[in-house]
Amino acid sequence: MLSSRAQAAMTAADRAIQRFLRTGAAVRYKVMKNWGVIGGIAAALAAGIYVIWGPITERKKRRKGLVPGLVNLGNTCFMNSLLQGLSACPAFIKWLEEFTTQYTQDQKEPPPHQYLSLTLLHLLKALSCQEVTDDEVLDASCLLDVLRMYRWQISSFEEQDAHELFHVITSSLEDERDRQPRVTHLFDVHSLEQQPEVTPKQITCRTRGSPHPTSNHWKSQHPFHGRLTSNMICKHCEHQSPVRFDTFDSLSLSIPAATWGHPLTLDHCLHHFISSESVRDVVCDNCTQIEARGTLNGEKVEHQRTTFVKQLKLGKLPQCLCIHLQRLSWSSHGTPLKRHEHVQFNEFLMMDIYKYHLLGHRPGQHSPKPSETAGPTLDLQDGPAAPRSVLGQPGGPKTHIFMNGACSPSLLPPLPGPMPFPLPVVPDYSSSTYLFRLMAVVVHHGDMHSGHFVTYRRSPPSAKNPLSTSNQWLWISDDTVRKASLQEVLSSSAYLLFYERVLSKMQPQGREYRSEE
Predict the structure, then answer these.
(1) DSSP output for 211-270
(2) Per-residue pLDDT tens over the stretch 21-78
(3) Which family does it belong to (predicted)?
(4) Residue 135: what pLDDT?
(5) Least confident of 64-68, 104-108, 150-154
(6) Are residues 490 and 465 located together in one domain of the fold?
(7) Total structural domains in the chain?
(8) What is the pLDDT of residue 183?
């Protein structure tokens, strides 16, 4: 419908035309002769009205409950989908706020966007409606600009991978944390001119062999940082190697072969990830020592090579869990193919049975002190282990199938046979200590050569209850945003899954994740 101002303008135009038609032929001839002058005067009047009263059409406002979209700069759907997914993780945004206080607490004016953490925080807060903005569509080109300052050459006109960009961001944040002096690019004339001149008094001598500067630890635990545990057991002498801990930012899970009549689930992928594997022809020091004891006169014995069993488990679960489903496969001819199988996932994910716990450490008990055990110990700073209700299920320490560091090779399942695991029809989430809630899903449409990324994410919480979690889901494709149902989200072919840990009622609410050891 037209506004009253537009209707009045149309009425005045109709009256002028009627008056012009009622005039005589001579008058109409003179008017037509000076038509150019009249048109110029009319254009000037229209321009004046526009300047004074503004445009007739009103600006379209963003609908309630939706979030801003992101403009596609060419082929930047991979970046837009990842930013929308990260903006649905409140713990990550809170961590960025704490991390960037070092730049803003002593400065009256906000620093320029030369730090990745500040640029990322500004974008994520705008996408999560924590910053007031009237724009329906935002421009994230500033993120590409700051990543180029960290020596990442990412083109906005070439198709990229969202999972690779996720690791680019996490690794660049670590570089920013380390605060190593960055070498200025030779073509960055502006930065070279702004560098302070070094006086002879400022020049110091660096001796050879000096220790490298140690990196600063996070003030608070990085929400996406977790730890994997891996150990190997000799199948011949049952000797166990020391447990190894490795840091991860995301779990990259391969999709196992589907069985006819049985759907693929996320639990299948997780069990396939931690399932034990056989490593052949490994030198066992313990078997070599045993063989040397049986020889006479201390004769040298060749290194004994046996078969080891290797198994992974999650030693420390992060606060924000990013799961990457590997959909890349290779044909017999060596060509890349995309796997389109649907992997079932739920709104809540229990990770108790995938959690590593120390030998003899029961839920609710304190970890043994280093003087009380001969084996390697590590305070994982991640709360108690799995509850009794989970440990008592098949696959718990009673059967020793998933028990790291205490399982006998004779009790391990035959390789490469499938590993049994419980799949309850109605899981009891109340008994879970390591429970995660789904926050966002990134989906890739297309094949290995070309495609498009979209995101399903939760709507931001209301201003009245900012600590709550919204049950409204959104579907976002670059600058297009609409509401979606949970069923639509769970039916999608996920490529990236973003979960956030839910603290149970038995755990203290004020608990914080400590920094890494």
Answers:
(1) PPPPPPPPSS--TT-EEEEEEEEETTT--BPPPEEEEESSEEEEPPPPBTTB-EEHHHHH
(2) 566 665 555 555 565 666 666 666 665 554 444 444 344 455 667 899 999 998 899 9
(3) Belongs to the peptidase C19 family.
(4) 77
(5) 104-108
(6) yes
(7) 2
(8) 52
278 domain-assigned: no
CB of 498 within 8 A of CB of 440? yes
Residue 452 among the catalytic residues: yes
Please tell me the predicted confidence (pLDDT) of residue 103: 77
Cα distances from 498 to residues 229, 443, 455, in angstroms, run: 22, 12, 11
**Which candidate in 77, 89, 269, 287 is catalytic?**
77
The 3-state secondary structure of 159-221, one letter per residue:
CCCHHHHHHHHHHHHHHHHHCCCCCCCCCCHHHHHHCCCCCHHHCCCCCCCCCCCCCCCCCCC
Q: State mean pLDDT over 130-153.
A: 85
The single residue of 272, 361, 400, 452 carrying the catalytic annotation is 452
Domain identity same for 76 and 165: yes
Where residue 384 falls among pLDDT bands split at 50, 70, 90?
very low
Domain, as residue range, for 25: 7-53
Specify the CATH number for the domain of residue 173: 3.90.70.10
Per-residue pLDDT band for 171 (boundaries 50, 70, 90) equals very high
Full-model pTM: 0.68
Is the peptide bond prior to 416 cis by the omega test (within 30 degrees of 0)? Answer: yes
The answer to whether the CB of 115 falls within 8 A of the CB of 176 is: yes
Compute the distance between CA of residue 228 and CA of residue 247 in angstroms, rounded to an integer.
6
Residue 441 lies in a domain: yes
Among 479, 475, 472, which residue's Cα sits nearest to residue 492? 475
